Amino acid sequence: MKRVVALRRLKASHLQRLREHFEVTYFEEPERQPEAVAVALRQAHGLIGGKLQVTSAMLDEAPGLEAIATISVGYDNLPVDELSRRGILLTNTPDVLTETTADTGFMLIMASSRRLVELANMVREGRWTQHVGEPQFGHDVHGKTLGMVGLGRIGRAIARRALGFNMRVLYSNASSKPELEAEWGLEHRTFEQLLAESDFVCLTVPLTEQTEHLIGYEQCRAMKRSAFLINIARGRVVDEAGLIRALNDGLIAGAGLDVFEREPLQDSPLLRMDNVVTLPHIGSATHETREAMANCAVENICQALQGERPRDLVNPQARPSGFSEQQQEQSVDAK
Fold it and tell me: What is the tens place of the pLDDT at every residue in 108-166?
């Protein structure tokens, strides 16, 4: 029977499903038992869990590893090329969190523009002593222009919400989407044009060498002074020091951020800015979605270790031992 090491974010029901097929060793808090985790990985065929950290040294100590299932959509923390070279399949959970993460993105648009957190705190702290006046006014969302930087699954879901608010939606993307332009009225722009025209700039791109620090001080300078920056992508897509400087200089009206360069966010000037909404990386953090993500990862690891093509295979170029040429071709075609 094949062996699976499971880390974090798995309930008893998920572990039971795994144990129907594999010998499973589960670590709820692996950082407290690093030596035990290392011992288990030496004999493991599969690894599943959230917030996975995989290094070359760890892979050297896990020669039998065939598949990794991360309970997340992002995998920039995992060495994809090296996993592929070693023939280790990597899967993620891209579809099941789309709508929930889009909810979070649009919530940040609403909360930042209407100053929700700032004004809610005013009430909570007993500072609401008279009718609100112009100093407490926010900005409308309906009828404004939303600029989507990236138009993948989550970007499209946010755009769809924006259309319900009668917003004009621009997008910059590696490739144009003529079908969405025709059906939804979306408008393609260069990145520079999008910055200049948008009232809200929303980031949904993956973290790559090309997108790291995509937005910084100079990009904020190119935006409207009344504009808001929304980031639900990855923290390092934004040059945080540049953003802080831009906010201090009044180059943009505010920001709504769910992700940061260093997490948890601590002792940052962002925490002291009334025009910044900061969330603790909760994009997919609902009971329903986290359950669906774990179910998806369990299904992926089962398929991978049973010789099937996983539904959400990240690296179809990987060639695990025992994986037939036909299965390999199917993987590449499906991807």
Answer: 999 999 999 999 999 999 999 999 999 999 999 999 999 999 999 999 999 999 999 99
The CA-based diameter of the chain, rounded to the nearest angstrom, is 73
Rounded (10°) CA dihedral 47, 52, 57, 62: -10
Exposed/middle/buried for 29, CB within 10 Å: 0-12, 13-18, 19+?
Answer: exposed
Look at the block and give the residue holding tokens 């399949």: 89
Q: Which are the catalytic amino acids?
A: 234, 263, 281
Asked whether the beta carbons of 239 and 212 are under 8 A apart, the reply is no
Q: Which amino acid is at 121?
A: N
User: φ and ψ at 164, to 5 degrees?
Assistant: -70, -15
Q: How far apart, in whole angstroms, are the C-alpha atoms of residue 107 and residue 104?
A: 5
| Rounded-to-integer distance, Cα 71 and Cα 248, Å | 37
Cα(300)–Cα(148) distance, integer angstroms? 30
Q: DSSP character for 215? A: B
**Model confidence, pTM:** 0.91
| Cα–Cα distance for residue pair 303/204, rounded to 1 Å | 29
> Are 62 and 41 in contact, with CB atoms under 8 Å apart?
yes
